[in-house]
Structures are given as structure tokens and as C-alpha cells.
Design a protein that fits this description.
The complex is a heterodimer of chains A (about 180) and B (about 800). Chain A has five helices and five strands, in the order ββαβββαααα. Chain A has two domains: about 80 residues, Beta-grasp domain (Ubiquitin-like (UB roll), Roll), CATH 3.10.20; about 70 residues, [2Fe-2S]-binding domain (DNA polymerase, domain 1, Orthogonal Bundle). In chain A, about 30% of the residues lie in helices and about 15% in strands. In chain A, strands 2-1-5-3-4 form a five-stranded mixed beta sheet, with helices on one face. In chain A, strand 1 and strand 2 form a beta hairpin. By secondary structure, chain B is an alpha+beta fold. Chain B folds into three domains: about 230 residues, Aldehyde Oxidoreductase, domain 4 (2-Layer Sandwich); about 160 residues, Aldehyde Oxidoreductase, domain 4; about 375 residues, 2-Layer Sandwich (Aldehyde Oxidoreductase, domain 4). Chain B has a seven-stranded mixed beta sheet, sandwiched between helices. A five-stranded mixed beta sheet of chain B has the order 12-22-19-18-13, with helices on both faces. The longest helix of chain B has 21 residues. In chain B, a hairpin with a 5-residue loop joins strand 18 and strand 19. Classes of the chains: A alpha+beta (about 180), B alpha+beta (about 800). Chains A and B meet through helix 1, helix 2, helix 3, helix 4 and helix 5 of A and helix 9, helix 10, strand 11, helix 15 and helix 20 of B.
Chain lengths: ~180, ~800
């Protein structure tokens, strides 16, 4: 069943996931950070909402809900996707990885360590976007040069404008990858 | 101690992050509550490293009677039974690094290792009221000779006195180190802080004569200590307000009006009959919201709910808005300075130069749309909020809810970077209203569009500049007049209507108090940087300014804004400095003098002169008049520009050189290199200052080149990242070289808004240097630049 909005909310019509109602729940299998979850969900639910609210994860965040900023980025089968505009049903059975699975404060992943070493944060809200996007890109392009990295990051936003440090951290991590491979 | 942690009931009431923090502290929830009234707790409520806060919502009454008195040492510092030093501060970590810097301050003054200091910030149940964390006020407030710094110094001296009694030696023969006090001549004779005072109160007033440690003896403060929170953030263990979940929590979504000034006619609840999980539709005045079991259901219900609104009044057309501002009546006029001889000076001038500058509304545009969690039950409320002013939020949310302020507890919980009053305050009211309506905890996160359409924007400005030059090209008189629209503001103690939710719920914004003509100024106050740095600022015979120009007048007209306005990083100062520093460059060009030399010629303040020289020297400044005498028909033109500011007149000093490339055919400006010199007194954490300076610089570039709020005849149209442009991560960024002047014997000043204030005019001046064309309106987006440079193509 679907109900269309009659409310004049033009801004909501720009893009993003249209909240049409589907009151029939579906069994959906989500594999997140190595754990399999069997969930009963409206299949149209954005993946982000399931990760943050059904599973209580801290990594992916709601920034815009429109796929414009990257705050909600997670890896699906190794590729960075924007979970705020991804219907949960579409990733049923895929391997989903969030920022918390990379490393811990005591044992951070090398890309997380690079951000610590460069002190590459201000408020830190965008770091999920930055780290996950960069990691997915560099996993596939370990020999990327600086300009490749910059263009890979060109749709990620940071409003504290920590750009200098974050790009330095990504490049530091990229150099480390190259030197060990 | 930890039996309560195994008690299912209390465990249910806490978020896991809070439970972990409590567990780490080795303290039970019950004993925490019992003891916290006397403030001898030894764990962090807001854990700087993880963002975790305790979530015992309905125990708010248990602590609500405690209101820390700022003149009492126990309000600021507590020595735990294990030697931990807990510091309570009213200045919050927003991402600017002040949390780590305050930890350094306390560790330094009390001579304990950093890791033994716990900082609790901005929780109305525990911390002193220090107003807003804003306006570059945290560094001066807590790092000079009052508040937290003075408390820490008082505590060290008190511990030395206690040790003197205990060890039977005069305090002068004792030294504190590593949380213990020992005889200087025999370090085996020592006593630890916990042995002296662990778990007990100081019962002392802050001693204004307690000696701060001189900067020459610092070992922790002044050092590049890494931020405590970064490891948790990068590994997704840090709890932002967006991550707060409390048991039984429901999800709310709000439905804002379709246009500015629209008011509610009716809500058709039948329209969401088919939406699963809906708990309640809530209406309060023109406030409309929906509460549902799950987040997705709340979003669906708010989207689908059919709501009828009156159309608001038509908005003034954006194309002619600056003229509209100039014509607005009534006005509130303020004279910041007036030498009363302006007309005469202009009559005698060899040359008169005039220019008008325009600055658009800009927005905070936080990365994460604003979010809050509220638990309002009966007569009490607990609010998890990213507000910059938890005490103000306590008062004004109490007004919105009809509760007593003392029954409301506000727990600051970090949000997405705010840069001023973004959506954090209104969304806290949203959550509070919805929670009250359902009697259960409710979380609200705004949509991107609601965040951007309804925040309190940084003000648009129209600025007229006029100067009289003498025969030598020196400035004899400077006249500044501006028109600035205002509506609402931060809520303060009594104005929830200053932000959208309070307004929709029936509260009025602060009334516009018209005043014309302006009264004569009675004291020098350049808080807004309305007075150009080059003026002497003479009021009642006393010069207060940073410059030498004696013919001076600064007149400001506030008018009513169609949109809510409020502080956006470097509020007013960003706009005024764009005009003043661009205009100074126009005068230097008219006088055919190098812009650095021309600045120094009219600046009298040593520290301001020093940052100008520092930036110019770092940039290896190409000293010559602007514009560049080169062919200006090349495809790519290059130039350099400089600007400077004495922030708020006296709260820090900055100067910035920008080197740009301009492509007239496309109108694209590329900022290639930036050299920025800052002076905020003694540097508390050079790494933190550098981070703030780099970030402020690039935020300034984004605002100078891209950012502009837009609207049509009835609504805001810049409502997402497609319609409000910002500077993405992968866009070519300039190299940013930061030069920091350390002044260990001066007072600490603001730091976070220094660099940003100087960016836009430095870029505009560099574009002029490159092209010979002066652009007097922001943003310098490709369309505007291309149009301005048409004759060069």
C-alpha cells in the first residue's frame, strides 16, 4: 500500500528516499561487521536507519538524507555506499562494514591511526564519511596519486573544514599501504 | 561500589556508553547521585574521550537543587579518593579543542599527569554556569585570572597549605609534582593529594590572589597535547547527541511551515491513518510534530501528514534585497564613534573615495542536521542537547514546557560542529515538546531541509564606506554606515521565540526596539568590528582604537529581518572586516602605496602591526601598489592580497595573505596559498590553535567563494548541499601556512574566530591585484566574478 504526500513540502521532494508507506514487514537478513541479523522490516527503510536505530551503531550518521554529504557511508561488499539513500532490502545478504569494525581505540586500523597521528578532526562528525570513502577507494586503488585521492574525496563534505589535515591523513595512510605492499 | 551496575533496573536506565563510563569510574550510579550533591565525585559525567554522558533521566530531581556557585572552589575542582582531579567547566568541547586545552590547564596548575584529570563540561546538574560557549570567549574566560584557571591555582595553593601542616614544613619549602607534595630538600617526605583531601570538599572561596604558574614553568599547558576525543571518534566509539538512546525512547519528526511567516490552519490526522507505528500527532500553536515507535515511521508520518497553512506574507525579492534593507523603517541606530568633524574633513579632502559592499545571509549548515533527546515526565525533564548554552536552555525549555527551571536538567552532548546557533536549540525544544506530549523520551533529528530553511542565519549586510584622503594620500577621515537586518537570536534566559520552534509554539522573538537618531557613544566598544582598525576610536577624549585616523564616524542601522538571524562564526566581524579591509585596499591603490605599508602607516597598535608584518614576512610579500602592472588579458591572472583584524577590537589579532589565480573566462578563483599570522596571547595548545586556524581559514574561503542563502517569493530555497554550496573535501585547497605569535605574559584572548575574519577581504584584494577589478559583493562565485571581469575576456 502506498500513500502519497499531499503536504506542500517542496524541499522534501528534491531527492532522497521517498517515504512511501509499506506496512507489510519483510524478513531481511543483514550481515553487518561479520554478524548476521534476521530482522523484520519495512523493505523501503533506508539502510542507515536500520544500522543506527535497530542495530545501534555509531559509525554511519545522518547528515543530509539525500546522498550529498557522505556522513552515512558504509561499505557494501567493499564498496562505499551512502546508506541514507539505500533501501535496506537492496543490501539483504551483502557484507556490510561500518567504521566501528575497522579498529578499536586501543588497536586502530592504519587509516584510523593516520587520522590520530595527523590530529585530523574538529567536531569529528564527518570522519565516518571521510575514512570510509577513502578506505574503499584506496583498497581498490592502492597506488592512487594525490590528485586521484582528491578527486575520490570530492563529494565528501566537512563543515569544520579540516580538509588540510584529513587529506594529509589519507595520503599518509596511502603511502603506508604502498610501502608495505 | 559497583553492585548497582549489576542491578538490572539501573542498568536499564543508562545508555551503554554511560554504563561503560560509569564502570570505568568504579562508582555506582546510586552513590554517584548521592555524592554528587557534595561534588566529591571522581568520574566524568561527560567523558571528553568518548562523549559518554550518564542517562539516569528520572533522577534529575536528585541533583537539581545543586547550583554550583562560581566563587566556590568546590564548584570547579574535586580531589577524588584515588587522586583523580575532577574539573567542572561551563565551556563545552564543540570540536574546537577547548576540552583538551582545559584538561591541560588543570593538569598544569595542579601538577598532576593529564590522564588523572577528568573534565565535566556543561551539565546543569554539576557545572558552573559560564553562559554560552561562544564568541571566542572560552580561552579568555578560563585561561586568565578567573574561573577555571583561578580555581586550579587556588586548589594547588590550598593543597600546599594542607601539606605544610601535615609535613610540618613551611609551604615555601614544598613542591607539588605528580599529584603529591614533597619537601624540596627531601622528596621521600611527601603526601599525596588523596591523602590530603581525597573525597572531601575544599570549602574555600576562589582566591583572586592565588598565583597562576608562569608560562615559563609550563610543562603541559602550551604543549601540543593530542585531542583526547579523536581515538574514539575515528573508531566510532564516540557518542554524539545523535547516538544517545534511552530506554523506552520514541522517535519524533517535525513538520515545519511551507514558507516564512505561514501559520497553521489545520492538521488532518486521518491523512496518516495508514502509517504504522504512529503514537501521536502533536500540535502547539503552529508547531506540528509526529511521534512514532521507530525512526522511519516518524519520518514517513511527518512527510505524509496533511497540514494546511496560511500563506505567509510575500518575501522581499532577493534581486533587490540590499536596496530593500537600505529603505527599511523603522531602524535601530547605533553610533560606535563620532568625531563630529566628518563633514568638515570631507570638505577639506584632496580626494574622496566611496564604495558600497554587500554581504549575503549565510548559514551554519552543520554537517549533521541537528538532533536532541528529551525525557519529560510530569514535572521534570532531562534534555540531551548540543546547545552552546545549557543554562539558557534550561530556563527557556522550562518556559516552553511550563515547568520550573530547577526541574529541568540539560546535559550538553556534542553535536555536529555548530559555528554559532545552528539548529541545536530549536531541535531541543522540538524533542522536549514531543516528549511532554507523550510522556516518554523522544529523539528528534531534523531533516536537512528543515535544518537549512529555519536556522538563525548570519546577517546580510549593506556597508557604505567613504574616506577623505589628504594631498599625501593619507586617510584624514573615514565614515562607515551600514544596514543590518535582525530577527530573533540565541534564546538567552527568556526568549525561546528567538528561534523557530519557540516561535511556532507561541513565543515571540525579542521585540525590535527602534531608536533614531542614535545616542552619542559613551565608551569605546568595537565588539562587532564595526570600527575599522585604522581609526583612533576617540570617545570623550580617550582613544580606544587600534589606528591613528581622527576623523571618524561609524553608524549602524539595524532593521527587521524577514528571516531569523543569529551569531555565525565571527558574527558581524566577518562582514564588517570584508568591507573595511577591502576599502583600505581601495584607498592604498588610490594613493598608489603598497597595501602592507599603507596599513602600517595607519595602524598604531603594536600587536596588530606585528601580525601584519608576520603574515607579510611569511608570504615573502611582493611590496608594490596594487593592482599588478602586468598584462591583464592572460587566460589566468595571479595576485596577492592582505587583510588584518583586531578581533572584537581587542580579543586576538590576525592577518592573512592570500595568493589567488583568477580565470576571467570562467570566473573561477583558485586560492593557491594562504599565510596567516595569529596572536591569541599565550598559546595553550599550539596544535589546537593551528587546527582552528587552518579550519577557520578554509571555512572563510568557502564563505568568501560559495556560500549564500537564497529565497523565492515565500520560502528559503537553499535547503541542501545542491542549493547551498560549500567547499568539498576534494576541491583543490590552498596550502595554509600558520604563523603563531606566542605572548606568554599577555592575557589569553579568543582564537577560533581570528583567521576566518580575515579571509574574504584578502581574497577580494588578491583578485583586485590580479585583475584591476574590485568586486564588492560576496560570495565571489564564478557567475559574479565572470560578470565582473567581462571586459578582460
Amino acid at each position: 500500500m502506498g500513500i502519497k504526500s499531499n503536504t506542500e513540502m517542496s524541499a522534501q521532494e528534491s531527492s532522497g528516499v521517498k517515504p512511501e508507506v509499506n506496512d507489510e514487514l519483510k524478513a531481511i537478513t543483514l550481515k553487518v561487521n561479520g554478524t548476521t541479523h534476521e530482522l523484520q522490516l519495512d523493505p523501503n527503510t533506508p539502510l542507515l536507519y536500520v544500522l543506527t536505530d535497530d542495530l545501534g551503531l555509531y559509525g554511519p550518521k545522518f547528515g543530509c538524507g539525500l546522498g550529498q554529504c557522505g556522513s552515512c557511508t558504509v561499505l557494501v561488499n567493499g564498496s562505499a555506499i551512502r546508506s541514507c539513500v539505500t533501501l535496506v532490502e537492496s543490501v539483504s545478504g551483502s557484507e556490510i562494514t561500518t567504521l566501528e569494525a575497522l579498529g578499536t581505540p586501543d588497536k586502530p586500523h592504519p587509516i584510523q591511526q593516520a587520522f590520530i597521528d595527523e590530529q585530523a578532526a574538529q567536531c569529528g562528525f564527518c570522519l565516518n564519511a571521510v575514512i570510509m570513502t577513502a578506505k574503499a577507494f584506496l583498497d581498490k586503488n592502492p597506488h592512487a596519486n594525490d590528485s586521484d585521492i582528491e578527486s575520490a574525496m570530492s563529494t565528501v563534505l566537512c563543515r569544520c573544514f579540516t580538509h588540510v589535515r584529513m587529506l594529509r591523513a589519507i595520503k599518509r595512510y596511502a603511502r603506508g599501504m604502498t610501502s608495505t605492499t | 561500589m559497583s553492585e548497582d551496575l549489576r542491578n538490572g533496573e539501573s542498568e536499564m536506565e543508562m545508555t551503554s556508553g554511560a554504563r561503560e563510563a560509569l564502570k570505568r569510574s568504579g562508582l555506582s550510579r546510586r552513590s554517584f547521585l548521592k555524592e554528587s550533591g557534595a561534588l566529591i565525585v571522581c568520574f566524568s559525567a561527560f567523558d571528553l574521550a568518548t562523549g559518554a554522558v550518564p542517562a539516569f533521566a528520572q533522577d534529575a530531581q536528585g541533583v537539581s537543587s545543586y547550583r554550583p556557585r562560581p566563587n566556590q572552589l568546590d564548584s570547579w575542582i574535586a580531589i577524588g579518593g584515588d587522586g583523580t582531579v575532577t574539573a567542572y567547566t561551563g565551556k563545552a568541547e564543540l570540536g574546537q579543542g577547548i576540552g583538551t586545552a582545559q584538561t591541560q590547564l588543570v593538569a598544569e596548575e595542579l601538577c598532576v599527569p593529564l590522564e588523572r584529570v577528568k573534565l565535566i563540561a556543561c551539565d546543569t546538574a554539576f557545572t558552573p554556569d559560564q553562559g554560552y560557549t561562544s564568541g571566542s570567549q572560552s580561552h579568555p574566560a578560563n585561561f586568565n585570572h578567573s574561573n577555571l584557571a583561578q580555581a586550579a591555582a587556588t586548589a594547588r595553593e590550598a593543597l600546599l597549605r594542607l601539606a605544610s601542616d601535615r609535613l610540618g614544613a613551611p609551604a615555601g619549602q614544598l613542591a607539588a609534582a605528580d599529584g603529591a607534595i614533597a619537601l624540596k630538600t627531601d622528596s621521600s617526605r611527601k603526601v599525596t593529594y588523596q591523602d590530603l583531601l581525597g573525597g572531601q570538599k575544599f570549602n574555600l572561596a576562589l582566591d583572586k590572589n592565588a598565583q597562576r604558574k608562569p608560562a615559563s614553568e609550563w610543562t603541559v599547558l602550551g604543549k601540543p597535547v593530542p585531542r583526547a576525543d579523536i581515538p574514539a571518534i575515528v573508531t566510532a566509539r564516540f557518542q554524539f547527541v545523535h547516538n544517545v538512546r534511552v530506554p523506552g525512547m520514541l522517535y519524533g519528526s517535525v513538520v515545519r511551515p511551507p514558507g516564512v511567516g505561514a501559520t497553521l490552519v489545520s492538521v488532518d490526522e486521518d491523512s496518516i491513518r495508514g502509517v504504522p507505528g504512529v503514537v501521536k500527532v502533536v500540535v502547539k500553536g503552529s508547531f506540528v510534530g509526529v511521534v512514532a515507535q521507530k525512526l522511519w515511521q516518524a519520518v514517513q508520518a511527518a512527510y505524509i501528514l496533511r497540514v494546511n497553512w496560511t500563506p505567509g506574507p510575500p518575501l522581499p525579492p532577493q534581486a533587490t534585497f540590499y536596496d530593500h534593507l537600505r529603505a527599511q523603517q523603522p531602524t535601530r541606530d547605533t553610533l560606535l564613534v563620532d568625531s563630529k568633524d566628518i563633514d568638515e574633513k570631507f570638505t577639506q579632502a584632496a580626494t574622496v573615495v566611496k564604495a558600497t559592499y554587500h554581504h549575503p545571509y549565510q548559514m551554519h549548515g552543520s554537517m549533521g542536521s541537528s538532533c536532541a533527546v528529551a525525557d519529560v515526565r510530569g514535572e521534570t525533564a532531562t534534555l540531551w542537547s548540543a546547545t552552546q548554552g545549557c543554562w539558557f536552555m534550561r530556563n527557556t525549555s522550562a518556559m516552553v514546557l511550563g515547568l520550573k527551571p530547577e526541574n529541568v536538567r540539560v546535559i550538553f552532548t556534542r553535536g555536529s560542529g555548530c559555528y554559532g546557533n545552528n539548529g541545536a536549540d530549536p531541535v531541543t525544544y522540538d524533542a522536549a515538546i514531543l516528549s511532554q506530549a507523550v510522556g516518554k523520551p523522544v529523539r528528534v533529528q531534523l531533516t536537512r531541509q528543515d535544518e537549512m530553511a529555519w536556522e538563525n542565519y548570519g546577517m546580510a549586510f549593506v556597508m557604505d564606506e567613504r574616506a577623505a584622503l589628504d594631498a599625501q594620500g593619507n586617510i584624514a577621515a573615514w565614515d562607515h554606515e551600514s544596514w543590518v537586518p535582525v530577527l530573533g537570536n540565541r534564546p538567552g534566559m527568556e526568549r525561546p521565540g528567538n528561534v523557530v520552534t519557540g516561535f511556532l509554539a507561541g513565543f515571540q522573538p525579542e521585540p525590535f526596539a527602534a531608536q533614531s537618531p542614535a545616542p552619542a557613544p559613551t565608551r569605546y566598544n568595537n565588539n562587532s568590528n564595526g570600527i575599522p582598525s585604522y581609526l583612533a576610536g576617540v570617545i570623550e577624549g580617550q582613544p580606544g582604537g587600534t589606528g591613528s585616523i581622527r576623523g571618524e564616524r561609524v553608524l549602524i542601522h539595524n532593521v527587521v529581518s524577514p528571516f531569523f538571524t543569529g551569531p555565525l562564526r565571527s558574527p558581524e566581524r566577518f562582514q564588517n572586516t570584508f568591507a573595511h579591509e577591502s576599502f583600505l585596499d581601495e584607498l592604498a591603490s588610490k594613493a598608489k602605496v603598497d597595501p602592507v605599508e599603507y596599513r602600517l602607516r595607519h595602524l598604531s597598535h603594536a600587536r596588530l602591526r606585528d601580525v601584519v608584518k608576520g603574515a607579510a614576512s611569511a608570504a615573502n610579500w611582493d611590496a608594490r601598489p596594487s593592482p599588478k602592472r602586468a598584462t591583464n588579458r592572460a587566460a589566468i591572472l595571479t595576485g596577492r592580497g592582505i587583510s588584518c583584524v583586531a578581533y572584537e577590537g581587542e580579543n586576538g589579532y590576525a592577518s592573512l595573505v592570500a595568493e589567488v589565480e583568477v580565470e576571467p573566462a570562467t570566473g573561477v578563483i583558485r586560492v593557491q596559498r594562504v599565510f596567516v599570522c595569529v596572536d591569541c596571547g599565550p598559546i595553550s595548545n599550539p596544535e589546537g590553535l593551528r587546527n582552528q586556524t587552518e579550519g577557520g581559514t578554509l571555512q572563510g574561503v568557502s564563505r568568501a567563494l560559495f556560500e549564500e542563502v537564497t529565497w523565492d517569493d515565500h520560502k528559503i530555497t537553499s535547503v541542501d548541499w545542491g542549493t547551498y554550496r560549500t567547499y568539498p573535501l576534494g576541491f583543490p585547497i590552498p596550502t595554509v601556512q600558520v604563523v603563531m605569535i606566542n605572548r606568554p605574559t599577555e592575557n589569553a584572548t579568543g582564537a577560533g574566530e581570528l583567521a576566518i575574519t580575515t579571509v574574504a577581504p584578502a581574497i577580494a584584494n588578491a583578485v583586485f591585484d590580479a585583475t584591476g577589478v574590485r568586486i564588492r559583493e560576496l560570495p565571489l562565485n564564478p557567475e559574479r566574478v565572470k560578470a565582473a571581469l567581462k571586459q578582460l575576456v
